Amino acid sequence: MDFLEDFPSMGRGDLRDFKKAVDAGFRGFSREYGEALETFFEPLLFFMVWFEKLLTNTPWPVILVVIGALAWIGSRNWRLTAGSVVAFAVIGYFGMWEDTMATLAIISVATIVCIAVGIPFGILMARSDRAQSVITPVLDVMQTIPSFVYLIPVVMLLGIGKVPGLLAVCIYALPPIVRLTNLGIRLVDAEVMEAAHAFGANYKQRLWGVQVPLALPNIFAGVNQTIMMALAMVVIASMIGVKGLGVPVLRAISNQYLALGLMNGLAIVAVAIIFDRVSQQYGKRLQKHREGGHGV
Amino acid sequence: MVSDIKVSIKNLYKIFGPNPASVLDQAKAGVSKADLLEQHGHVLGLKDVNIDIKARGIQVIMGLSGSGKSTLIRHINRLIEPTAGEIVIDGQDVLAMSDEELLNFRRFKASMVFQKFALLPHRTVADNAAYGLMIQGIEKKEALERSQRWVERVGLAGFENHYPAQLSGGMQQRVGLARALATDAEILLMDEAFSALDPLIRTDMQDVLLDLQSELHKTIIFITHDLDEALRIGDDIAILRDGAVIQQGSPQEIVLNPADDYVADFIQDINRARVLEVRSVMDSKKPRSGAKVESNTIIEDALQAIKDNEGKPLIVTEDGKAVGSVTIEAMIDAIARPEKDGERNPAYR
Questions:
Q1: Which residues of chain B are within 8 Å of residue A192 when distances are taken between CB atoms?
Q2: Which ranges of chain A have pLDDT less than 70?
Q3: Which residues of chain A have a Cβ shorter than 8 Å from any chain B Cβ?
Q4: Residue A288: its pLDDT value, please?
Q5: Of B117, B125, B135, B192, which to mutate for an interface test with A (greatest number of A Cβ within 10 Å)?
Q6: Residue B218: which residues within 8 A CB-CB, separation 6 or more?
Q7: Is the predicted ipTM greater than 0.95, yes or no?
Q8: What CA–CA distances, in Å, run from B332 to B272, B308, B328?
Q9: Dihedral angle, C-alpha A252, A253, A255, A259, nearest 10 °
Q10: Which residues contact A14 (CB under 8 A, 6 or more apart)?
């Protein structure tokens, strides 16, 4: 009867040894390669520090103007532009300017890293079904594994700081851009691709002349999703030493400061909405050519 | 027209399925399409196709959907790989080309027009027309200059900066035509190029094509399911059924001597007076006097001429020389719809 009531699990001693072995193995790995990895990520750290300093040291009126200009270039919409500037002004008025700039810095760098890594992987997936069948489960794991779980090995390897924070954000925010790049390229009209073949386009000409431009609206939806997911990671990233709006939120949770938590939370929301609307408008403009006009 | 052969398709087979080579011998032995599918799980796409295509003419390949005509045209620039056979163009076997040679063949030698236009939706009319040239590696500025002439030639001047989605179907296909012509390829592959257009626009585009051809003399391979279109523009027609060529010849030959009931059915409802020319129905008697008619006049026009001539036979001329005569009875016999199960040559199935 015991056999049916208690799941026949591995002995407690064996389990402990197993966990110990995994821990020791990884610890050994991080002792061996931790430094090398840190050196590898040094340029990224450099860039992040530089970018954050740039944002925090630039006089706030200049930043407001730049934000307004970017919103205008992205959306061509006066209301959205004015709304963005006002939102940032309010954020600054409530004393969250510096944290917001730090958050902007990590989001921007994370997005750039995700684009640089994600689009090539998406292209690879679109090119080969085998690559797709290998990468898809990896993306599934990246999206579903609780973030706290991968914080452990990341911290073990790289300690606490900006780079592990960035890594954590990227693990979470990378999948949508890879998936949507793959999808966008696979959805490119087979007839247009056939025409490209028929005119003797080689792989590069087909990729950059047909597939990527036609997949751009989807790729851009992926960028938008990546930005949103990166913002969602701000609080968790602050647990491992990333500065920004997440830090006061974390403090508010442990001390039950309602106002502090709410204000910083709303600031994250405001930044998210601005990024989302502006990038969506920009994505829509990319599809301008799809609109019919004459004689359709 | 000089009738040297530009494209020669020899013993071409295409079998679709998991292992085409394994059933090639059965297909060669004459196992039917249905049996091949049922017993071996393979689809016979093309079956022993042999067509010699003349340079500087319009070769129409006609068949209903599923006859393999679109598959066939895609073999010529190897968008589809054959199971067996040869395609020789200017003495070179397309199927033996390396990847590099094939790219250059597609870039410089054969261009294509598609049924659904297949334009690049994110590029303007001008950029689309210049696409083939840019693929050849020509600088954008020069490519646009060279293709501009073709944009104008197909009647799209003023629309250079429109996107394809802003144009009607007929205009989009003009872009497709300009894109194909701009590369200066000697061979033009047209896959049901006008089938997606309204009847009036289709006639319009046929005129555009015939007009261009009278000036350019390209080797055009034109796929269609529309017999009227085939008879109107084809110098030669090959009729395809279930992947096999069942008849080849000039429009005249096909209308006068359909190879089998299938073809006979096809030509049942056409306006024979508009297809047949007097040279196909004349006899060799050469009357001394009478009204004259060129040998390539269609019967519809010749009937009018004979009426103006009070019903007397007409003298048929070729380059001004009399070659025979034609009577009203001969013409009426020729345009009468043949009895379906009549006394046609029993040698045909």
A1: 118-121
A2: 1, 291-296
A3: 189, 191-192, 194-202, 205, 209-210, 213-214, 216, 289-296
A4: 73
A5: B135
A6: B56, B185, B186, B187, B188
A7: no
A8: 10, 16, 6
A9: 40
A10: none
Helix (H) or strand (E) holding B113: strand B110-113
**Which of A235, A46, A241, A239 shows the shortest CA–CA distance to A160?**
A241
Q: Does the structure show a pLDDT above 80 at B340?
A: no
* CA B230 to chain CA centroid, nearest Å: 6
Cβ contacts of A194 on chain B, cutoff 8 Å: 79, 114, 118
**pLDDT, tens digit (0-9, with 9 covering 90-100), for A70-117:** 999 998 999 999 999 999 999 999 999 999 999 999 999 999 999 999
In chain B, whose CA is at the least distance from the CA of A291? B165
C-alpha B293 chain-centroid distance: 28
Place of tokens 């399925």: B17
- Contacting residues for A109 by C-beta, under 8 A, at least 6 apart: A44, A47, A48, A51, A166
CA dihedral A125, A127, A133, A137 (to 10 degrees): 0
Contact list in A for residue B179 (CB cut-off 8 A) is: 199
Token digits of residue B135: 């693929």
To the nearest whole Å, the CA of B246 is away from the closest chain A CA by 28
pLDDT (0 to 100) of residue A34: 85
pTM of the model: 0.84
**Average pLDDT in chain B:** 90
Token digits of residue B33: 């399409």
φ and ψ of B57, to 5 deg: -125, 175
Number of other CB atoms surrounding residue A10 within 10 Å: 10
Cα–Cα distances in Å, from B76 out to A81, B7, B84, B314?
55, 9, 13, 44
Asked whether the predicted pLDDT for residue B40 surpasses 60, the reply is yes
Chain A residues touching residue B119 (CB < 8 angstroms): 192, 195
Is the alpha carbon torsion for A96, A98, A99, A101 positive or negative? Answer: positive
User: Which pair of structure tokens corresponds to residue A67?
Assistant: 């934000």
pLDDT digits (tens, 9 = 90+) for B257-285: 899 888 888 888 888 888 888 888 888 88
**Burial grade of B236 (CB within 10 A; 0-12, 13-18, 19 or more):** buried
Q: For residue A19, count other CB atoms closer than 10 A to its CB.
A: 10
- In degrees rounded to 5, what are phi and psi of residue A6? -100, 125
B79 vs B86: CA distance, rounded Å: 15
